Amino acid sequence: MTMPTRRPGRRNQVLSRDRILATAIELLDGGGESALTVRALTERLSTGAGAIAYHVGKRDDLLDAATQTVVTAALAAAPAPAASTPTEEIRVAALALFDAITAHPWLATRLTLQIIRNPAGVVTVGIFERIGRQVQALGVPQERWFDAASTLVHYILGAVSQKARIEGDTSGIDGDVDREEHLDAASAGWQQLSPEAYPFLHAVVGQMRDHDDREQFLTGIAVILDGLARL
User: Fold this and answer.
1) DSSP string of 56-79?
2) How far is CA 61 from CA 33, 87, 96, 142, 179, in A?
3) C-alpha 190: how far from chain center
4) So what's the pLDDT on residue 9?
5) Distance between CA 149 and CA 135 in Å, rounded?
6) pTM, entire model
7) How far apart are CA 120 and CA 129, in angstroms?
8) High-pLDDT (> 70) share of the chain, %
9) Cβ distance 218 to 95 under 8 Å?
10) How far apart are CA 227 and CA 221, in angstroms?
11) Nearest to 218 by CA among 51, 82, 93, 134
């Protein structure tokens, strides 16, 4: 009696929403949004497109869910220290988002789209609530709460946008170029400018070349918080 043979590539693992999202995030991390196709996902999971749609939905739903998964996990994994100040709590939340986008370059664009397109979504309300409570605790006047929280959120998004992978970019610039190579090229370009026409750029070219992205990000947060304290 012959035993039935298994279909090649078929896995025994139960297909679930969490497993689909984990695999989708792996694809996004490996090649950006262009790497996340239904075909690539079904092949990786050894399943059909209908199963993906049943558990998650369309590709846009999948991207939104992947964004929510990464952002929610990043914020949950970075609780503020006990008895911390509002300033420290804002720094912790901001750095959690910064580090998440550093680890997942595709996230910068998707996070911005979530904030713009889905103001009542889990990602948007989660970020605004966490930042906003600390703005309130800082003693900012209530009539300025929304402006203050928005300023912080927009700064965070703007600061991390430099890490975004721009799908469909035809500029010829490699989005995955090494950071050191990029800074070397930028500093060389600034040094070739006329010192008379661009005295500021010549004065800070060394700082630009050797700066730390994380420290620069925190400096911006500190500047904003200092301004909010004066409100």
Assistant:
1) T-SHHHHHHHHHHHHHHHHHHT-P
2) 13, 34, 24, 35, 32
3) 29
4) 44
5) 6
6) 0.80
7) 11
8) 87
9) yes
10) 10
11) 93
Task: Name every residue whose Cβ is closer than 8 Å to that of residue 95 and which is 6 or more positions away in sequence.
Answer: 78, 214, 217, 218
Please, what sign has the CA dihedral across residues 29, 35, 38, 41?
Answer: negative
Question: For residue 178, what are its two tokens?
Answer: 């090494």
DSSP states along the chain: -PPPPPPTT---SPP-HHHHHHHHHHHHHHH-GGG--HHHHHHHHT--HHHHHHHT-SHHHHHHHHHHHHHHHHHHT-PPPTT--HHHHHHHHHHHHHHHHHH-TTHHHHHHHHHHH-TTSHHHHHHHHHHHHHHHHTT--GGGHHHHHHHHHHHHHHHHGGG---TT--S---TT--HHHHHHHHHHHHHTS-TTT-HHHHHHHHHHHH--HHHHHHHHHHHHHHHHHT-
- Residue-wise pLDDT tens digits, 93-144: 999 999 999 899 899 999 989 888 999 999 999 999 999 999 999 999 999 9
- Three-state helix/strand/coil letters over 175-196: CCCCHHHHHHHHHHHHHCCCCC
The span from the CA of 203 to the CA of 45, in Å, is 54
Alpha-carbon gap, residue 24 to 6, rounded angstroms: 25
What pLDDT digit, counting tens, does each position of 39-75 carry? 999 999 999 999 999 999 999 999 999 999 999 999 9
Band (pLDDT 50/70/90 cuts) for residue 157 is confident
Tokens 């690539």 sit on residue: 40
194's tokens: 């006329």
